[in-house]
UniProtKB/TrEMBL annotation:
Lineage: unclassified sequences, metagenomes, ecological metagenomes
Name of the protein in its database record: glutathione transferase
Domain GST C-terminal: 102-221
One of the record's GO molecular function terms: glutathione transferase activity
Pfam families: GST_C, GST_N
Entry keywords, A to Z: Transferase
Length: 221
């Protein structure tokens, strides 16, 4: 049996969606975020030492990290939702599988941290200093890096309906989180292919079933 240790409003929502697309049998153990810190509860450390979600237990084997979990589940289901290794678009698929939790997740976390720094309670005289520091990071790194990444996703989705080509794949599932986060932060103006992609994935029955089972899904901004 597959058990998903599912943290609300988190990356683990994609694991539920993948399992629904695969038609797999699984159970969910739900965890709530700390109301003050928004962090995962200490109970998750009983499952994996890092105490992060998603974590999957498959017949006693504990697997952490979204990308590793998704590749494991795809392999366990005969390579479903992935092109064959000798297919022309296989490396394209692999790129998006790893870029989601690499380049894209990193830039979204950086944006989140800067926003929290800018809005954190602090003495009035510290506010201008904090804003100057965060704006320096935005100007030197964040803004142009984020634009480059999401422009690339936009261009890719202009060439094909799905990120790895004409067929829906696990790459579309794993990339949903950074693309949804990008849209939720209000950065979507001027893009047309990313919003259309999000409309397509949100309309999928498996996506909707995962939401019903995983609970309300709100992105932390």
């Amino acid at each position: 049996m597959i058990t998903v240790h599912h943290l609300e409003n988190s990356r683990s929502q994609r694991v539920l969606w993948l399992l629904e697309e695969l038609g797999a049998d699984y159970e969910i153990k739900h965890y709530k975020r700390d109301k003050k810190t928004s962090l995962a509860p200490a109970a998750l450390k009983k499952i994996h030492p890092l105490g992060k979600s998603p974590v999957v237990d498959h017949n006693g084997q504990v697997i952490a990290e979204t990308g590793a979990i998704m590749e494991y589940l795809v392999d366990q289901h005969g390579g479903a939702l992935a092109p064959a290794p000798d297919a022309p678009n296989y490396q394209r698929y692999k790129y998006w599988m790893h870029a989601a939790e690499g380049s894209y997740a990193a830039i979204m976390v950086t944006a989140l941290l800067l926003t929290r720094m800018e809005t954190a309670p602090m003495p009035f005289f510290a506010k201008p200093i904090a804003r100057k520091l965060t704006q320096g990071v935005r100007d030197a790194y964040l803004d142009h890096t984020m634009k480059g990444l999401f422009d690339y996703a936009e261009a890719t989705l202009g060439d094909s309906q799905w990120l790895a080509g004409d067929a829906f794949s696990a790459a579309d599932i794993i990339m949903s989180f950074p693309l949804e986060g990008f849209a939720a932060r209000g950065n979507i103006a001027g893009y047309k292919n990313i919003p259309a992609f999000l409309d397509r994935i949100h309309a999928r029955p498996a996506y909707q079933r995962a939401l019903e089972k995983g609970g309300p899904y709100g992105l932390i901004r």
